[in-house]
Records
---
Amino acid sequence: MSPTAVKKAKEYTDTELIALYLQEQNTAYFTQLYRRYASKVFAKCISMLGDEGLARDATQDIFIKILLNLSKFTEQSSFSTWVYSITYNYCIDLIRKKKKIPLLYTEDVGKISKEQEVEIPDSVLLEMKQERLAKVLDRLPPGDKAILMMKYIDDLQIKDIGETLGKTESAIKMQIMRAKHKAQSIYDEMYGHDPIEGNGN
Amino acid sequence: MANNFQLWQGDNECPDEILNEIEQKVVHQANTLSLFGRVIELFVPNALQTAAHLIAGSKQSGPTRRNGGRYSGPVIPEGRPPAGGGADGRLLPSDPDTI
């Protein structure tokens, strides 16, 4: 692709690049999409999988999957949401297969306990010291980790998180509440001398 | 301003050399798929047409038929016009207008 064409490709929106690629089958357009999202996809993979080698393979597989399913992208959500959806589902499936973890989410069924009925403010997690947050997140079930990442890193709407994980909005809200409680209990267990205040700002 | 979650993920950003290495592999696969798609476009219609000819048979390639066989064409005695009238359009003797 000529330098002028490359420059022009950078100015296209994601939707325009997809349409051009599907029309002309010119991989330069897909390459531009790759360059926009590869870094974020890799960061999510390594955050979920915790291993650089796995994250590299996962990133490659995810972009091949995106390539093969590009014609199925319907613009019901943004392209970035679609990409992150594929990324999270791929990572969750991989973790489940490798570690044979039956439970992906905290207490997926049944009533929540009295303690869990108390809503934990977002600030409790967002103000957690970064190195402690990393350790707490590493101990969360992968599904809970993915939901919190989608909410607090990607700023996805509840509706979009539900579509990504194939759950209803009410189920996602409940899962976020449980994930925050789980994160708090892990934090208390690890750093009991410096507990989180549930009534924080 | 980034929150702690975003900063935490930011620490996991990928070095350029790894991204470039993955890019080469992904683009290579994309080129292979694109080439494969073009091969399919070129050869599949011709292959399907050939298969259709083989199954249905064509006039040139159809089996030869003996005279008087079960599926042979009508045997027309000498002197009689073919069914449907002669080339000059004359009506058959059995036509009601000639009675």
Note: The domain at 3-99 of chain A is CATH 1.10.1740.10 (Rna Polymerase Sigma Factor; Chain: A).
---
Amino acid sequence: MPVLAVFLGLAGGAIVIVISNAASGRGFDLLLPLRAYASMLTGAVTGVDELVRTMSEATPLILAGLSVAVGFKAGLFNIGANGQFLMGALGAGAVGAAVAGWTPWLAIPIALAGGMFFGALYGFIPGALKAWTGAHEVVTTIMLNFIAAALVAFLVTGPLLAPGFSFARTGDVGNAAFPAIGNVAASGHIGILVAFAAVPIIYWLLNRSVLGFEIRMVGANPSAARYAGINPGRLVILTMSLAGMLAGMAGAGQVLGITHFVSASFSTAAGFDAITIALLGRVHPVGVLFAALLFGVMRAGSALMQIQVRVPVEIIDVIQAVILLFLTAEILVRWIFRVRVERAGLEELKTITKTYGQATR
Amino acid sequence: MQPDAESGRDHVVPAAPTSGPEPQVVLEMRGITKRYPGVLANDHIDLELRDGEIHALLGENGAGKSTLMNILYGLVTPDEGEILLNGEPIQIREPSDAIARGISMVHQHFMLVPVFSVADNIQLGQEPMANRVFLDRRAAHERIRALGNAFGFEIDPDAKVETLSVGWQQRVEILKALDRKAEVLVLDEPTAVLTPQETKEIFGVLRRLAAEGHSIIFISHKLYEVMEIADRITVIRRGRVVGTRLPAETNEDDLAELMVGREVELTVDRGESHPTEPALVIRDLRVNDDRGHEAVRGVSLEVRAGEILGIAGVAGNGQNELVQALTGLRRPAAGQVTLGGKDVTGASPRALYDAGLAHVPGDRQEYGLVLSFPIKDNLVLTGYHRSPFRRGFVRDDEAVDAWADKLIGTYDIRTHSGEVAASTLSGGNQQKAVVAREFSRDLKALILDQPTRGLDVGSIEFIHRQAVVKRDQGTAILLVSAELDEVMEISDRIAVMYRGEVVSVVDGRTANREEVGLLMATGRRDVLPETRVMTSE
Amino acid sequence: MEVVFEIPVIGLILQFVAYLVQVMPSLAPIILGISVPIAFGALCGVMNERSGVVNIGIEGMMLMSAFFGFIAAGFTAEVIGEQVIGPFSATVPLLLGVLVALATAMLLSVLHAWLCISVRADQIISGVIINLLAFGLTGYLNRIFISPNPGLGGGTFSSFHPPSWLVDIPLVGWLFSMFLEHGPISMTLIVFVIGLQILLFRSRWGLRTRAVGEHPRAADTLGIDVFRLRYRNVILGGVFAGLAGAYLTLEQVGAFQNGMTVGRGFIALACVIFGRWTPIGAFGAALLFAGTAVFGRAVNITPPTGNLAPLGDFLSSIPQQFYGVLPYVVTIIILAGVVGRSIPPAADGRPYEKEGQAA
């Protein structure tokens, strides 16, 4: 079913490509989408450098996808992964710059921990708001995303500004940088290993640990969870902090692995990709991994696609939306393919909408 | 035959059921069949309703009575069968069709919008209009007041429904149905939430309506009520009609046997209880409801080990808040609760569990189970945090599996595996799972909240028997139920709650049903309830 | 009067209030202007949620309608020119742009309605889909159609200017300025707010809508078609989102930028909650948000004097960026403070299933 949704998403993107191409006066080119997708694939998997770049694109997506998925398991919609990503990046950049001269054995973990901490903090805020006041995380996290961008701009041009550069940015993280993998141009780094390691850890946490059982119970039926002795508020806060930490790791990885500093206009779309990734992966850590790899391919290959075929990279966002549409309305997939598909709906999703506008009691 | 000036339809003057010419058949349902996945809810059911009669539809929970009436009302489409009104076949595809044909229904669960006023609820769907767009509120008020007066009630059209007592909400529901000029009136378990006195009142109203030419279908699972009010009784079992009787020709045992299909012990033998010292002591407890009003006003009770104390009362007199305060789901405002001598006032559900208290909640699907989880996880829902089900941070899956297998066997929970989701269980088996989980450990006290609501007779028997067993093991049991019968059947002592206070505690064996009913309705033994004037609470 | 101001602490607060009263009226038209897209978004939200449907895709609807309205006006202007044919400098391209904006939002509403009501998908996800689609599609098409044509555009509606004798009326003159010194779309806002409020609580449609949002099964048993009512309301709600989008590109600025809605569709949701799901309440909340957005500017233009001067210095020294995020912060504060006490329509967010349907 997710495979079908992806296929239909690509088809939807293809339709948009063809129509918009025709409407802009460049003729009705039915093969254009195929050339576009081919070039995307070429840019992503046809060489060692390309593969490395794909993995590097996928790294933050895996972590952000896990962040959203963990939220979903508890019946929480973490749309704030973007903001948490930024905070994690900023935290890693600032701490990294501060420990830039230390030995890498200390600098790297400390900087990474800095990123994780600030990401967790930025997840804690909406979690606490939800637990103590009932403010629904959907709106608060979106607000926090905007605030995070402003915070980054403010801090980088202010207290964290590194002198001597031609544009506003933090200092270089020096020894806190992740060791590179492969060709410099491919931006590979060991962050990919961190991301890969997170998958089984999160799986184990959710399915074998007592905490995971509690998280899943709160997501499936918060009333029963209260009856069963769980403090839902405590769990909401814990889960959002955990989700924030994961998204923060994604941001830290970007800074420590690729850019090595934070600019005032540092931004990302990983948080929104993460939503589709989490749902495409059926909110299962392994599924998230594969979905993130798919998106990694798309994002990595899109640069080449834009150069070679002149299809703007934003088409990926369109494809994403269509994939999500078919995941949600599996009835459409059924109708198009005449196959029996099980509902993509998850119990946890019901809890998300149910708590909209009502305080967690 | 005289044309009825109002409806324009031929209207037969109703004859008394036992004399004169054969009364006209107003409504006939023939061969009604409805299948749901895995269940044949209605199996070729034939039903005949005569003009001016009160026809009872009797069957236990889940027998298919509500489905049949939902088909009549257009909420459900049948797979086979036809409906004839006054001899001609009609199509009912949705409620507006039924309403247009003069069929009105009072549902088991109130179909009232709580935040709307009485007037808004009654006029909804056929609002008097001042012009094409705007409502005519004054006309609506007039009509409702007139309607109330016709039946001897004083109605406040502006009262918000959520502030009314359940008895008055029931009356509003009935008025709502009558306001639609119903020829056929269907009532689904109308007395479920009423006191014996209110039940008598409603029966009086129904008899009057029947005499005035309305034809009534009365759904119930309560034998003595059906014997009292019905002109004819049709019994349904497992989706099939198993017999139609006249009350004069039958009795409760006969009907019970028809309902269940075998000889039924109507009461569980509760035997002698040997209570010892008090295990659960409640002193002067005060609890507020969601709106901040005092719902429990200084309740003091003692439940002794080895006895069942039943709390009787009309729903909405503070029982919910009392149970919530005792089980950690709501903080008391004042007072003290001790369990086995230990102060547990305001303790969390987890702390209470660890202290030896178990709670079977009133809503098994919302609170008692996580339906999407496997049955085995549900069987450790309240105990997963203790060994042997956990080892540090990790769960011990083997221990959980073993425990689940044991409980499924002992309690005969009908499922082929503990791995499937709890949603696959029937209602009775779901409740058995909850009971299995909570009963299977050493307990100081046990709180049962509506433990047999919506269950079939077999499951009800089972749960009552298990409760008696638990009592004889020395557990103190507090039973809260809106079903007076249940309370009277297995309680050793009965406490009556009225407006947040315990107004009386009587012996369970010698209690008088009428007396308890009066206490439930008015808080006093000697005063009849005021049923004429609507009061907001 | 000044004596009152001398009272410690309270006097300071009163001074502050007096300052606001002095400064804000001149800003009132600006405040209303800023509130227009938020308020229209909130009206869309009210229509949806009163019927029982949660719609967090208002942001996406606004963005899409802003884009397509702009494109329609722009291309039409290239083809037939920009001849003024009516008041407010209305041209055919502009009017067409408005229509296209409305149609776009209504189409997206059809999608949302279908997903929420017929497919019974999770309603928040449906909103996310609309937002993603909007951001992706507008970003993509922006690159293809607008970037290569920097001069594209159909202009904007111009504002009406009430006569000066009206505005100069003491005490209430500023109200005329506030509501009348605007383009056509803004002026319709107050009409819609009052109209919707009256209809919601005094008309048959309003009664049935609220019933469907509170207890759809009760309405169903009384013969009301729950599905049709919800569909109609969600689609009509799209009109408001379309007006918000049209305002952005056809009245406020004559250009389109990626993501130009900057979260106002979400702030609108907070307004709905804060306004207790009433049109007038939501409008008031929108004015409040607009006020906070303008506050920073106000402090800089007309700094407080006298005893408040230190406060004025402090407020002026806060970087404009903080004022930029003030609406977002206020949204969070309001949600945190109000939500627990504000009760939504009881069936909000719950898809309705008729009893006889197989799951």
Note: Chain B has a mean pLDDT of 86.
